[in-house]
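A favour between colleagues. Tell me how you read the following sequence-structure pair.

===
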Amino acid sequence: MQRRVEIPGEFAPPETTCGVDVLFIAGEHSGDEHAARVIENLRQRKPGLRVAALGGGEMREAGAQLLFDMTRFSAVGLVEVLSHYGFYRELFTRVLAWIRLHRPRLICFVDYPGFNLRLASALKAEGLSRQGGGEIALYFYISPQIWAWKPGRRFSMAQTLDSLGVIFPFEVDCYRDTDLEARFVGHPFVAPGHVAPVHYAVDAPVLLLPGSRPKAVRKIFPVLLRAWHLFHEAHPGREAVVLHPGEPVLGVLRAVMERFPEQAKGVRLVQRERGAAVQPAAAALCSSGTMSLSLALAGIPGAIVYRANPLTWFVGRRLVRGVEYLGIANILLKRSAWPEYLQSEANPTALAARLKICLEDSAVAYAAQEDAATLHSMLGGGEPGFTSPVEWLLESLPGQGVGA
C-alpha cells in the first residue's frame, strides 16, 4: 500500500522579502537530481539568486528552499495516478495558490510532464505567465519524449511555454514546426560534476540491471538470473553484481533470488547511493531505462533486455511509432550498438551467448569504447547550437544574465 503523504496547509513563504527568482518543480527522483546540479551551478554563477523548489532533498542540498518534497509521492502508472487522484488534485491547487501569491520571476519545470504541463496551462489561463499576459517566465527542462509518443502535445507546449531545454540534440528538430524555442542544453550525464555510477574494467564483474521499478524487476530479473547461470557454469570465476536503488526493489530482488537459489550463485546485491564508489563492470545485461545510457557512456558492452505483459507490449508498440530502438544510445547512434532482446527474444540462452561475446571478443569491447566517445561528444556540447542549462536560464532573468 502506498504511504499517505500529508500536504501542508500552506507552503512556506519565500525566505526573503524580495521573493523568489527561480522556482524549480520536479516530481520524480531523477528530475530532482538533474535540477540539483543546475541549481548548484546557478548559485556558483550568481550567489545572490533566490531559488525555491517543489521537488526533493537533492535540490535542498544544492541550496534551494524546499517548499514540499514531491518525490516522496511519485507515481509512474495510470492506475497509480488514478488511485491517488485526490492527492494530486490537492497538490496542484496548493502549488498554483503559492505561485499566485508569491509570483516567482521564472519557473523551471523539470520533466514530469503530466503535472507540469497542466500547471503551465493553468498559469496561462490565470494571466500569470508571459504567454497569458503576466510576468512569470515558464521554462521546461528535459523535453517529454514527443519523438516516441504523443507528438501532438508540442503545439500546446508552444502556446504555454517560453522556452524548452532539450537534452538530446535531435529533439530540437521535433519542435521546428512550432513557435516554441527549443535549445539543446546538453545531457545531465555528461555535465561537469556528474559522477558516473559505473566504469569499464576488463576483469570486473558482470552487471545485471533489471530496472528500478518493482513491476519491471519481477518480469526481467528471473530471465537475467537464468542467463547468468548458463554463463556462470562455463565461467565459474566470474561474479555478477546487481545495482539497485533500495526498497521496494531490494525486496523483489531477494524474493526472486530465493525462488532461484541455484541461478543466484555468484550474484551480489549492491545498493546505489549518493557518494558511493563507482561500480566497475566488464559487461552488462540491462533493462531499457536510463541506466542503459550510463553503461553506453562508460563504454561497457552488453545488451538491452525488455519483457512486459503481452497486452502492454501490443498497445505500446502501436502508440510508439517511428522509433526503431528502445535504448537511447541506439537511437542516438542510429544502429544497434547495444543489441536489444525484446519479449520472447529475451531468453536465457541468447543472453548468455551475448555475455560470452562481450567478455571474450576484444573487438566488441573496443567498439563500445568508440561508441562511448561518440556519445559524449553528441551529448556534451559537441553539437551546433549548444547552450549550458545555466546560460539558458539566466538569459530569462534581466540583470542576472551571463556576465551580469
